[in-house]
């Protein structure tokens, strides 16, 4: 292996997909008003973000923070070129997403049996069955909504502990067979390290190829950016992130903090990987989000230290 | 490039070299009493650490925090198998290190002209000349003290900005020609990203080969562990770290925080790379250091969240 190949394999361009409005807000007690959410989306859009998960079609009783997802999605759909994603935990949510003409819906599927029961009250294979019904419904209705399955707890689980990589590969194959458009791998609880990422993404790439579209890393134990780097070396060029590093999973104790949008963007800019993002605007948006979530834990590093002197503003805004 | 080669290239074993007593303490105002330093070294030794930089032979007027380096070194030399390192900024310091029979002395050489002037009041090539005189003195006296040159600001500088990789390679070649035993590359101010690390280490490996022995990364902007991973992929298997992530450089504003010993150890253990370190003892030592440095900034992540459920105690103690 010649080291140069490590570099040349990296993508030229990567997408930072904003998860703050869904993965972030679902795990904080504060309910952000709809108007602030629209301002968030507008600012993120103005900063160059073109993929945003705007909420979740779950019963408002379960997640009152996301009860306004329909309204938020409708606003996001007015912004040209913005790919607005919604999370749907089940068939009913998928029906709502398709009825709302969402461009994409993300269906979570836990590779951990125990997490799946805690999070969705269904075993993984029951979820696979539901995903197949969602695909059939889309075919029947002619909806355009793309289906991405996010394999959660793909690197281990705070409830169950070990998650067998075999099981991850099996579930990926099962949902591909069920006709989903894309899959992503999520380190829901911050257990992954770069070697695990390298191994698992490589195995899943063998079965999913270009349909493996995204890596979702939590920075619970400080390894999210190292994990992003490991996945990028395999050509992965889309990563989920949350403004101010908010996020987690209500059923995964200790799983605080998606990798922060600002930190991920800084690393990509520093490496010369284009994101289309305006760093100063991301920082300004971060400040707003921190204000809206006053008292909630936030994360991230680069907002404290600022960009290196060696990063030119033009590059940072590339 | 087959991904498997990324993994197989990683070292099986890596050394976490403790820098807290030197790089850490030199940048904090608190003066840790000698007795506490000896306790620190004893605890680090009991946790499995076998390479510790115990201080710096600089004039006590400049760094009163390290005025007891001679005494601390003498204690460290009583612990079987411990490689105690001292930093020496000049010929005079090197004479003291050799007189004290130190096993290794680390001579800093800034690749940034501006940082070199600020830190040592000498241009880089003057420092190279002094290093040659140190080597000649060692030959003349028959001292056993090995000479490692740490190329600081190798990835950029808060004063000067850009540092030309060409200049880093030139200086490495110059000190190798001057007869030093080893070189290391330091991201003194936290400007490096994994792609930069990959490129620069690869270039320096071409001229230094096995004499490039160590990577020194500050976590100022959250990329230290990603940078360690990038260097490990090139076979580098020794990394500097500071307990509780303390550290920095008094002449590099904003350069806070060596990568924390605990976080680095966690990543290595998670990846199955042996360190010989006892994780619980490292955490217990961290708590002591934080107490000794009450009020000073500390860093790190894993002490807050604990090890993943998937890491068995036996593995963590490997």
TrEMBL record, chains A, B:
Coiled coil: none annotated. Keywords: Lyase, Metal-binding, Transferase. The keyword Lyase applies. Residues 14-283 form the Pyruvate carboxyltransferase domain. GO terms for biological process: ketone body biosynthetic process; L-leucine catabolic process. GO terms for molecular function: acyltransferase activity, acyl groups converted into alkyl on transfer; hydroxymethylglutaryl-CoA lyase activity; metal ion binding. Belongs to the HMG-CoA lyase family. Belongs to the alpha-IPM synthase/homocitrate synthase family. This is Hydroxymethylglutaryl-CoA lyase. It comes from Ramlibacter montanisoli.
């Amino acid at each position: 292996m010649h080291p140069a190949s490590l570099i040349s394999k990296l993508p030229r361009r990567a997408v930072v997909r904003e998860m703050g409005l869904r993965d972030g807000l679902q795990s904080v007690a504060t309910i952000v008003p709809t108007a602030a959410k629209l301002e968030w989306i507008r600012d993120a859009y103005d900063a160059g973000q073109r993929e945003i998960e705007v909420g979740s079609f779950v019963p408002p009783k379960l997640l009152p923070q996301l009860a306004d997802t329909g309204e938020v999605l409708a606003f996001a759909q007015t912004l040209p070129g913005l790919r607005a994603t919604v999370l749907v935990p089940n068939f009913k949510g998928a029906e709502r997403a398709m009825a709302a003409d969402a461009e994409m819906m993300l269906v979570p599927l836990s590779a951990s049996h125990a997490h799946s029961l805690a999070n969705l009250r269904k075993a993984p294979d029951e979820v696979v069955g539901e995903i197949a019904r969602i695909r059939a419904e889309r075919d029947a209705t002619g909806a355009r909504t793309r289906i991405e399955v996010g394999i959660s707890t793909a690197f281990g689980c705070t409830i169950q502990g070990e998650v067998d990589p075999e099981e991850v590969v099996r579930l990926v194959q099962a949902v591909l067979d069920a006709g989903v458009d894309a899959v992503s791998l999520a380190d829901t609880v911050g257990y992954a390290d770069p070697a695990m990422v390298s191994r698992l993404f490589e195995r899943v790439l063998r079965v999913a190829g270009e349909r493996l579209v995204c890596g979702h890393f939590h920075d619970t134990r400080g390894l999210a950016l190292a994990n992003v780097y490991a996945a990028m070396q395999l050509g992965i060029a889309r990563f989920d992130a949350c403004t101010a590093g908010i996020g987690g999973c209500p059923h995964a104790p200790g799983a605080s903090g998606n990798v922060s949008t600002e930190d991920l963007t800084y690393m990509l800019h520093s490496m010369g990987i284009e994101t289309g993002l305006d760093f100063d605007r991301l920082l300004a948006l971060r400040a707003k989000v921190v204000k809206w979530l006053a008292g909630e834990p936030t994360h991230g590093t680069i907002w404290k230290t600022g960009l290196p002197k060696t990063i030119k503003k033009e590059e940072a805004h590339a």
